[in-house]
What we know:
Strand 35 (616-621) and strand 36 (627-632) form a beta hairpin. The strands form 13 sheets. Strands 17-18-19-20-21-22-23 form a seven-stranded antiparallel sheet, with no helix packed on it. The chain has a six-stranded antiparallel sheet with strand order 1-2-3-4-6-5. Strands 12, 32, 33, 34, 55 and 56 form a six-stranded antiparallel sheet that branches. Helix 3 (118-137) runs antiparallel to helix 8. Helix content is 11%, strand content 41%. The protein is mostly beta strands.
Amino acid sequence: MTLAAGTKLGPYEIESPLGAGGMGEVYRAKDTRVGRAVAVKVLPEEFFENEDRRTRFEREARTLASLNHPGIAVLYSFEEVPGPSSSGAAGVTRHLLVMELVEGETLRQRLSQGAFPARKAVDLGAQIARGLAAAHEGGIVHRDLKPENVILTMDGRAKILDFGLAKQRAVAAGDDTKSPTMARATDPGTLLGTVGYMAPEQVRGQPADARSDIFAFGCVLFEMLTGKRAFKGDSAIETMNAILKEEPAEPDLSGAKIPPELDRLVRHCLEKNPAERFQSAGDLAFDLEALGGSSANGRAAASAPSRSARRWVPAAAIAVGFLVAAASYAVGHWKGKRSVAAVASFAQLTFRQEPIFNARLAPDGKTVVYSAAPSGNTPEIFSLRSDYPGASPRSLRAGQLLSISSKGELAVLTRSRYIGHSLFEGTLARMPLEGGAPREILDGVREADWSPDGAELAVIRDVGGKDRLEFPAGKVLCETGGYLSNPRFSPRGDRIAFFEHPIKYDDRGEVAVVDLAGKKTVLSEGYWGEEGLAWSSRGDEVMFSAGTAYNNNFRVYAVSLSGNRRIALESAGGLTIHDIRVDGRWLTTRDDFFREMQVLAPGQARERDLSWLDLSDPAALTPDGKSLLFMEESGSVGVNYAVCLRQTDGSPVVRLGEGAALDLSRDGKWALAAVPTTPPQLLLYPTGAGEPRKLERGGLLSYESGQFFSDARRVLACGHEDGKGVRCYVQDIAGGKPRPVTPEGTSQGFVSPDGRLILVKASGGALVLYPVDGGEARPVAGATPEDSAIRWSADGRFLLVSRYGEVPAHVERLEVATGRREPLRTLGPADLTGVLSVGPFAFTDDGKGYAYACRRAVSHLFLVEGAR
């Protein structure tokens, strides 16, 4: 029976039907207790007449509910509630699965339009495989993977439905093969799965395991690539016979113009013998990501606020013995196996609790020079010998190491100012390795690297809101509206390798090289985070540290100039590579990073740690300080972060959806977020009942900040369009494209309470006011280039500002009309060991309640031998 809209099943109010199948009917419903939209599956009453079956089902449901992965639709609960029976009688106990409501279309609906482009199929396939891997690690096998059970969300992500729970529809011998689910109750000898996607062992009635899901995945991927079913007969029996005896149906993958490597991967999934298939969905996902230089993740041109932090590896201190046992792995042959390439040994060089930002081996092969911050984020340069313990400071306060030349000369930054990740900005200087005063040569530089002959330097600097890679200084080889990092000359001196990140100081991005004529080539892309790059000892590969989607730990990868990628080194906790000697020795760090979110709620005397996972950033507080919007960046929530809401009394976290949290409306009913997809998307999430709303993107390729106007009818969004620098746009929530209101080179926009002025940070660091409706801009009196705005006061008279990178942070009130400054609060922990930054901040209207993030990092330097 179909339930009518308005029917009550316990606390769930039915709104509309979503679908039906052998395991029951699915409805869109409202959880009236919390106002959340959910999907409710009403299970057949007869299914629970058998007590053993019911017990097994409840056990599987509890296991499934424990999964937390962005590629799997969340199961909230399994419940018994009073409701109408199939005959319409009242007072009957109904059994419900209450699930995450995923908006989008099924993969089956999308396949009705034909095959996917190979790149898109690989992208979605990798996501599905990662979801399978997460479930298999939790001991759950899907057993009925098919296009109907995969949802493609509005932002282009794939989520798997109906994990692991028994289906109960019998298939008659004359049924067609559109996707009927075979009967079973997880007993041996019972057919499991859906005709056309069943593994041979399922067809024979044998138990299904993770490899059965891999076979079904191969069928699904085949169909995505070709638009045809891998196995199809005129009846269910003929289809099952094809699965047992035949190869995939014509046209084969080569006819669909699919690369041979992908052809082999799909056919390896479809081996008849489970022992000959991929043995791990994780290996399968990795090989998909490896095809075409990790193109499976797509190019990350998405957004997170500029305050977004480096994905330093969050881990407890790990015994050196684990590191000594670490091995590097090469990508295996097409059957998915891995072969050990080399066993690496690790010699620990540093032992203090401090973040290490950069490290190099000197030409003598024994001296190591590195920059670190013993307290706070002010760097100092140290040197040590690899054959003798203990480091010595180089007497250069606020000095950041950039590079060492073949002649033994240092390139350093003086008067360096912390920006984020391991990045600083300051004055480029040359300094003798043996000691002596630095000779300053160029202001406003962030990174640099010596040419192989030690004569000149390639530099990276921000000019007019665009990042430039220059060689020699002044000659632009590459520029971007995001940012560039980690420039390294090839041993031959004919090209420079570097990272390009589409969003300012969000370290996702790609690996590229540029020749000295300015021709850029992307070697590998789609990384969730990238830090650390060097050329191999032979100069034929670029070695780099990166993390992929759903993976916190950084591996060291190697990519050739033709784009072939392999894993070069991995270990417990993750690694960042800094330098490689011609004799094959590597210099690496293991970096432990976490972020605490401290909150002082109104009326409370002490701050509370209200962090959710390990990378929580506050975005906004409601005026009364009772609700906090924040962003969680932990890899556990997925590549696109999570927008979260939490009461400041410490109540459980409510996850609103994907994205970088930007702002709350004044009434607390809507959260503004930027979802880092390709292309990016600006979304409004309801904090209570309701559906997310997409805002028109126009030509924007990134969102770096965003804020509601006080009337909640418009938002201010700052980002950049293709070929243009960052600027701020006004967006009407009711509809229409974003309208630019500030010139290029302006960011971090804040709307005044009356909605008339926009405060931005202009190129060069000045705080400037722009009228929303046009007119002459004016600088903020009393502001300095080091000031970062936090918010306007509720009456519009003051700005709350702090100096970015200051540890601890001194928050001040700056009177807009006069430029008068007065201290408000000093925020930060008593122990500054490893503290890189304090902020971002969120304040209540009266300034008495607040939230802030404290970011800590601890690194240890290792000399690695035996890796390649």
